[in-house]
Specification:
The protein is about 30% helix and about 20% strand. By secondary structure, the chain is an alpha/beta fold. Helix 13 packs across helix 14. InterPro entries: At1g61320/At1g61330-like, LRR_At1g61320_AtMIF1, LRR_dom_sf. It comes from Triticum aestivum (Wheat).
């Protein structure tokens, strides 16, 4: 209210001053304001644009989203030149504001037409990033892609991301042929290869040759569902001395992956679900992180002393935990973080004298619809006891129904004992999918009895995240009646065999099925248990 009154008083004073001085003063005031406006602003189509240096305008325009940049170009002449020299070009359904629920034919037509319109009006000068996402399209005319790449992939480009649709089947002379885009490697031989830092190709074919030239600035190479052989990849890697990160996903033509020793800067390597892959041989001396998923064949990392993080996901073999215990020390002797995921593990982990002297975090995930009961959870003591610096141990068990013998009904003196190995650094132990399997209870008791440094023990009997964790209205649907029965058994096993062994200084967290979502089921499962 005070502000309004102040404005009114100001207007009244101005009117009195103009009235006293006459109409000449009013005209002069208007001319002064108009001159000041012309000096400080460019006006175009009724939209004012600050009179800023060209480089600042270009920077502002480059920071806008594609849609906002297009609107600014239509509204102001000052931005038009920046539009045809826009450095960051990201094309997708989202950035172009297209309807995701339209038919694939409509999506293909609209997406191609909009991208082509923008690219044909682009000067090709100053492009730093080109990101084209055509995954939602069908039956693309690859001539468009060739045209766009010729415009944008010029010396100075730094990032090229190309996501194409799933390969389609076309017919030539009545014969079916899989249509896959062949990326023109010649574009990287005209000087563009000197500046490109990030290359990401998905659903295309890449056939590099010896004449590719040096990609001296390439630090990140990601290929997903890309057709490239092991020899062709070797050629590409041999011309990428600055490479830091290499990711290969679903590259089906690679049988043997060999990484040259000249990749002195390579730190991160991920190889996932390359189904025909048989050999992984890396001579990169400074590799620190290796992720592998798929069928485990021959792996050699040159005894890399720098490798600190190792993750292995093998759902087509039943002895991965055993393999890791027997062979990983020769592959990664100084590993500090180790993650192993296995499907239906059948081979027990052997007790060996070798030690993981630097291992601090151990995560083991055992997945299966139903274990046969042959696997002995207590054998995992081999890993724990072989890791004197271990601080965090996570065991995740996922099974639809338990096939192991339950400990309930067993006399407590029948629990197996393993020669003591004291753990002075283990602080946290988490077991998800905790059940009443006798060998799992024995493993838990062994850790409690032989760990003097333990701060926290978490036993999760739910197998699946509850609504309190996922923030959904209801718990995971796979938490059915059988799972609830086993959860009740697990809780009873904890109370009977584990609770009394927990030292007073250890925080015990017991997670059980959500009482809100499973109130009725819990009553039924309790009745079955009794």
């Amino acid at each position: 209210m005070r502000l309004l009154m102040s404005r009114k008083r100001h207007r009244l004073r101005c009117r009195r001053r103009i009235r006293d001085r006459g109409p000449v003063a009013l005209v002069a005031k208007r001319k002064s304001l108009r001159c000041q406006q012309d000096d400080n602003y460019h006006v175009d189509r009724g939209i004012s644009c600050p009179d800023l240096p060209e480089d600042i305008l270009r920077h502002i325009h480059a920071k806008m989203t594609l849609r906002d940049a297009a609107r600014a170009t239509c509204a102001s002449h000052a931005f038009r030149h920046n539009w045809i020299c826009r450095p960051n070009l990201t094309f997708s359904l989202g950035t172009l504001g297209l309807n995701r629920n339209a038919s694939r034919d409509v999506i293909t037509r609209d997406l191609i037409s909009k991208i082509d319109l923008i690219m044909q009006n682009h000067s090709g000068i100053g492009v730093k990033t080109l990101d084209i996402d055509l995954y939602s399209c069908d039956n693309i005319d690859f001539a468009y892609l060739d045209s766009w790449l010729r415009i944008a992939v010029t010396p100075g480009i730094e990032e090229l991301i190309l996501t194409l649709p799933l390969p389609s089947i076309v017919f030539e002379n009545a014969l079916p042929i899989i249509s896959v885009y062949n990326f023109p490697c010649s574009l990287l031989s005209n000087g563009s290869g000197n500046s490109i830092q990030y290359l990401n190709l998905c659903y295309c074919t890449l056939r590099p040759t010896a004449g590719l030239g040096c990609l001296r600035s390439l630090t990140r190479l990601h290929m997903s569902c890309t057709r490239i052989t092991g020899d062709e990849l070797w050629c590409l890697l041999s011309n990428s001395p600055a490479l830091v990160c290499l990711k290969l996903l679903h590259c089906e033509e690679i049988i043997s992956l060999k990484i040259p020793s000249l990749l002195q800067r390579l730190r991160f390597l991920e190889v996932a679900y390359c189904d025909r892959l048989q050999v992984v041989e890396s001579n990169a001396p400074n590799l620190t992180t290796f992720y592998f998923a798929g069928f485990l064949g021959q792996i050699s990392l040159g005894g890399s002393l720098q490798l600190k993080t190792l993750r292995m996901i093998c759902f087509r073999q039943t002895n991965i935990v055993c393999y890791a215990r027997q062979n990983l020390l020769s592959i990664a002797p100084n590993v500090e973080t180790l993650t192993i995921s296995s499907l239906n593990e059948m081979v027990n982990t052997p007790m060996l004298s070798s030690k993981f002297l630097h291992l601090k975090l151990l995560q083991i995930s055992l997945v299966g619809m139903a274990f046969s009961g042959a696997y002995d959870y207590l054998s995992l003591v081999s890993f724990v006891d072989a890791s004197p610096c271990l601080e965090n141990f996570v065991l995740a068990i996922s099974q639809h129904r338990m096939g192991h013998a339950s400990i309930l009904g067993e006399p407590s003196h029948d629990l197996r004992q393993i020669p003591q190995q004291r753990h002075a650094k283990l602080k946290s132990v988490t077991i998800t999918g905790f059940c009443s399997a006798k060998s799992l209870v024995e493993l838990t008791c062994h850790i409690l009895e032989n760990t003097t440094s333990l701060d926290c023990l978490t036993l999760d009997t739910t197998c699946h995240p509850s609504c309190a964790v996922t923030k959904f209205d209801k718990c995971h649907p796979l938490m059915d009646g059988d799972s609830l029965v086993e959860a009740q058994k697990a809780l009873l096993a904890i109370r009977r065999y584990v609770l009394g062994k927990v030292p007073s200084m250890v925080k015990l967290n017991i997670l059980e099925p959500c009482s809100r979502c499973h109130a009725v089921e819990s009553l039924v499962s309790t009745a079955k248990l009794s």
